[in-house]
Amino acid sequence: MPNALLALIASLILVACGSQPPAPEQTGAKVEDRTPAAVKADISPVAPVVASQVGEYTLAMLRDPNSILSKRSVFFDFDEYVVKAEFKPLVEAHAKLLVANPKIKMLIQGNADERGSREYNLALGQRRAEALKKMLILLGAKEEQIEAVSLGEEKPRCTEHGEPCWGENRRDDMLYTGEF
User: Fold this and answer.
1) Could you tell me if 152 and 122 are in contact, meaning their C-beta atoms sit under 8 angstroms apart?
2) Closest Cα to residue 111, out of 143, 138, 72?
3) Cα–Cα distance measured from residue 145 to residue 149, given in angstroms and rounded to the nearest whole number
4) Of residues 113, 102, 112, 106, the one with CA closest to residue 180
5) Per residue in 97-106, pLDDT tens?
6) What's the confidence (pLDDT) of residue 180?
7) What is the pLDDT of residues 24-35, one digit of tens each?
8) pLDDT tops 90 at residue 49
9) Are 134 and 126 in contact (CB under 8 A)?
């Protein structure tokens, strides 16, 4: 019996809390307009802002071959994980895109060439991915937007043996939401 009484009281409280007073236009009451005349004159419709259109860079530019954003790889020297100065404009462009679109996420895949042990290449790929992530964060991207992982030597872009091919494999690849 006490449980039924508690349930009835809880139901009554919920019903009482759920009711709202009628709107002024429903009761016939007049509402005073206190907006200053100068403000009324300046009111104009504002177009909604879409996240992918904010700022200088848009998500559509990721697929435009004429856009810097279509370039998604940063290359490294042998046994290095410092982002070279030549890639600064590319990294800045991707950072601006992330800042302008705070809901999208990026996955950075760090890669290494086939030289070195599997463990060493995984560690080097992680250091490369973390270096790029740190640079993007310093340029304004949010840490929670970016994940850095290492693929080591497991995802080569080129399978030949020699410096030109190894140079293509020493890289970070940047992927966006929906691509990973």
Assistant:
1) yes
2) 72
3) 13
4) 106
5) 999 999 999 9
6) 81
7) 556 665 655 665
8) no
9) no
CATH topology assigned to domain 51-175: 60s Ribosomal Protein L30; Chain: A; (3.30.1330)
CA–CA distance, 20 with 48 (Å, rounded to integer):
30
**Quick one: pLDDT at residue 13?**
64
Domain boundaries, the chain: 51-175
Secondary structure, 3-state, the chain: CHHHHHHHHHHHHHHHHHCCCCCHHHHCCCCCCCCCHHHHHHCCCCCCCCHHHCCCCCHHHHCCCCCHHHCCEEECCCCCCCCCHHHHHHHHHHHHHHHHCCCCCEEEEEECCCCCCHHHHHHHHHHHHHHHHHHHHHCCCCHHHEEEEEEECCCCCCCCCCHHHHHHHCEEEEEECCCC
* Token code pair at residue 34: 């206190």
Cα–Cα dist 136/146, whole Å: 9
pTM across the whole model: 0.68
